[in-house]
Amino acid sequence: MRAARFWFVTWIALILSATAAHAQLAPDPSGPHLALRLVAETTTPAAGNEVTLAIDSRPQPGWHGYWQNPGDAGFPARLDWNLPSGVTASAPAYPLPQTLLIAGLMNHVFEKPYAPLVTLSIPPGLTRGTILPIRLHTEYLVCTDQICVPEAADLATTLTIGDGAIDPGVRARFDGWRQAIPKPIGSPATYQIADGRVRIAVPYPADAPLGDAHFFAITPGVVAYAAPQTVSRDGDRVVIETRASGGEAAGSLEGVLRIATDRGLSLTAAPGVVASVDAGSTGVRAALLAFLGALLGGLILNVMPCVFPILSLKALSLARAGIDERHARREGVAYTAGVVLTCVALGGIILALRAGGSAIGWAFQLQDPRMIVVLFVLALAIALNLAGLFQIPTPRFVNRAAGSGGAFLTGVLAAFVATPCTGPFMGAALGAALVLPVWAALAVFAGLGLGLALPFLLLGFVPVLRRILPRPGAWMRTFERVLSVPMFLTALALLWVLSRQTGNAGVALGIGAALVLGALLWLAGRRQARGLAGGALAALALVGVGAVGAAAVTRLPHQASVPVAGAEPFSEARLAALRADGRPVFAYFTADWCLTCKVNEKVAIETDTVRDAFARHDVAVLVGDWTDGDPVLGRFIQAHNRAGVPLYLYYAPGAGEPKVLPQVLTPAMLAGLAE
């Protein structure tokens, strides 16, 4: 019944997609959305031998083809061979697919060039010079995230019986295609279905690396494709546990275990008993480590230029005369609640959007120029407040909720303006959060908030720390003016990011918003100086200018930046080509709105020391610009267990997996990579 429903839904979707494609894409002169070519490893095979054919498949950007088991939707390519008498063709061997989750449906797809391999068996006894015409008619489905188009192609090549010689260049190309095909694991695997769950035990050495593990089922009707998978290591085996599809498999279960981003092992599992792995303690340890990493990362965020002024002001507020112990603790708890709840809310949004198929990460909101406008207005208002132009009023409902002078709202503000920054420990911790259970992931985001709020929380609860603070006095006003400088610089940086996303029109809009906001806040400050109420005017100016600016801004097509001389824009195809040539590769992923990224680029990556070292050792540099939230880059970043940028990878020649570098770089660290 489930299989019938699957095919019914697939064909209905196909019919609707074909109708939409006919209406929307028929005039497209660019040809097929999946270009196919039949390539023979040798055109002169020897009689009685075998020859490998590759179906060289190249999707257009934004389109994808399907694996042999497409997942919850779609269908695999149908191959109809027309072969000379005695020649037989094997089933195609597919490379490792990618996962694509759309609207809760898991798809097994290829978004970059790929090549299924087919082996032809040539009958013995054929004389040299015998012509063997090979014909293939194939029907397949090609899709974007929104529409699907059924296509067909007629492919052909001609073989001539000869000595079986293979051109070295062709051999190298086929070697690359064969490397992408999952290798047989060579040992028996076992699976068990019980209580609506399926467990698969795969022999795998305990000391062998395992990253980004995922099981792709070839046999249908066993595994629920979109269900989360728990991968546990138990000595010399790996146990995959997930939800069963609802049916009982009568025989063996075939599939592929992904063991790295571009490597997989094919296996056949027989029915049997699979003892469960006590993943509870392992999961708790992983969650605890991620929580501690997020805690330390949040703590370091306090020294960032957009957060430090806010923390300093809240700390100095506790130094004012008349604040008793109870009041100080209320301030600390309220500020912490604002920070933690904001981080958890942002984390919950990230998890929900990723579950829906979006490839987003930390600071995802900064990929939208409207949010940049809002943050620019907010940072400018804070800077003008610190400069003494006006006083920020505290809404009464905040006082009632937080119980302490707007500390809750200040905590919300501190967490929100900290999102462009990523420090040490944060990347790995937030990356781990994306593969942990939801409860553990939200705990990691809460740990980030707790780390960010910890200094002020300690000031509220530890009297000796408050006594260390300088006594209040006239110097505090001067200190506030000094703190306005980093906030003005933050606003200027946001204006630069806005220019990168929207062009000169965005800069003009930002300057106009700054002038209007400054004038209105100056009027509010003048009223406050005369003892009149100016809070309503200040709040209206902040909300009004931010809302109008966000509504008026228009995104332009983003031009990816490649700041390093000789660097190239990142693509997985280019990375594969460079690695096939045996060159070392330094790939880094950045965004205009990522403060940590830009500091690393100026302090380390773009220095003469690094440039000269890379030139001496012929290190190729690839730059992935994630400013506009490119989903292809997002999925690649996610595959390396990171929740966002920066991400720095070094591929040594001949190495299987890249070296993941720290999120704070030094010239010596980069220069020493190729030594």
TrEMBL record:
Transmembrane region(s): 286-311, 332-351, 371-390, 397-418, 438-462, 482-499, 505-524, 531-553
Key words of the record: Cytochrome c-type biogenesis, Membrane, Signal, Transmembrane, Transmembrane helix
GO cellular component terms, semicolon-separated: membrane
Primary localization class, coarse: membrane
GO process annotations (BP): cell redox homeostasis; cytochrome complex assembly
Molecular function GO terms recorded: protein-disulfide reductase activity
Signal peptide segment: 1-23
Domain Thiol:disulfide interchange protein DsbD N-terminal: 46-158
Membrane topology: Multi-pass membrane protein
Compartments, as annotated in UniProt: Membrane
Record-linked Gene3D superfamilies: Glutaredoxin
SUPFAM superfamilies with a match to the protein in the record: Thioredoxin-like (SSF52833)
One Pfam family this sequence matches: DsbD_N
Name by which UniProt lists this protein: Cytochrome c biogenesis transmembrane protein
